[in-house]
Amino acid sequence: MAVRTFAAIDVGSYELGMKIFEFSHKIGMKEIDSVRHSIELGTDTYQNGIIDTDHMDELCDVLSDFASIMKTYKVDDYKAYGTSAIRETKNTVVVTEQIKLRTGIKVDVLSNSEQRFLHYKAAAIKGSRFDEFISEGCAIVDIGGGSIQISLFDNDALVTTQNIRLGVLRTMDMLATLQPKTRDIEGILKELIDNQLQVFKKLYLKGRNIKNLILIDDYVSAMLYHTGSKDRSFTAARFKEVCEELSQMTVSEISKKYGMNEETIPLLLPAVSIVSRVIKITGADNIWSPGVSLCDGMAYEYAEKEKLVHYRHDFENDIIECAKAMSKRYQGNEARNELIEKVVCDLFDATRKIHGLGRRDKLLLRIAALLCDCGRYISIEAGAECGYEIIMATEMIGLSHAEREIVANIVRFNKTAFKYYDELVAQSLLDKGNYLKIAKLSAIFRIADGVCRSYRTKVNDVRISLKGGELVINVYTVDDIDLEQGFFHRKASLFEEVFSVKPVLKYKRL
Asked: What whole-number distance in Å separates Cα of residue 345 and Cα of residue 340?
């Protein structure tokens, strides 16, 4: 295969970055150039809700320079992502349109969960060190400009991920409003951070033994790179020593010792405080800072999509494990949900010819199956609507906002009347493509739920075949399925409406 060149552009909260990569079967993925430009877009967004004209002009000038660099390298493809500074503006659509018209670069906006998942992938492709750290109790701490993401692993499985609005720029903005009232910046930082982290500790760390911490950020990682550890790992005790040394140094001394730009050092203080407090509440002994960025994750995503490289870590399984942990938190019926998961997968595979959906859509069905009864934790009567609200309010790493909304609607429409396009889009930002996915996946899901209607797992095996205008579902069981047959017609009506195929339920006693 000829060498392919790819550019990854990160329109971040406090920095614009671009990395150029080469891909080939011989060398795999190789970074060949990197450029960065400091610009505090996040300050505008977090304080005023919009990006001011001067910053907009600077942003477009820099991106135009990036476009020229891409031409010099003759890149085959590129991807540009905006993060929280673009995502949280009041006029995101206007901003991205201006960028496209003025620079020729199309910027897509990542949801928070998509952004963090790319960071996580970038760390995971580092190989054995990552695998070693997550094999025991581990927290991945991803520090951005607007927020931090803490993801917990237990025995290689992702068990939860939570977003906390404690990013370095947002924290600096809060400090700016408090600074005239106090000189105890370190004490104020601890109080601000602990107010948020103590809630996280109470809800998610009870009974967990967190031994390792993986740190993804721009400033603390850059500082620690110069501490002498060849594999970029160190103990919590060593980190505390570095922090104590740092507190005694001037800005110029920090810049000289750690090779950092003096303009960025003010952002180092809140980042160091965040890491210190996370170490304290988790009790982690070991820290690894892989030194990766969003651009690295974007390069991996591109290579994965184009089948240019292959890594052994199963990222799809991480999403499934997170959904299972979420179901457990809301006391879901594990046996029944796993049965529904199996049946929806069988139905999906058996009806490929008529639904035209892909592997990613099958993943959304599986997640819906695992979370289908989470709303009953709040209300048995209104479980479907409560399930929708829980899913929409819960960070699901690796899923876009639209994908999370698809899952939430599948769960809701399993028990409530299906809403048609005009009514549904009036309450959301879903486009026609995603609406059709909701309709198709909901139709399939209702069939599976009808087969597994009872909360006692009666079904031993299910065999499905598509014959002409009928979908024949043979259920093998030792019990009678009178309840399932009684409800099946009502559950099957949407499937017949969407696909013009009539589902037929048959059962055979074992």
From this structure: 8
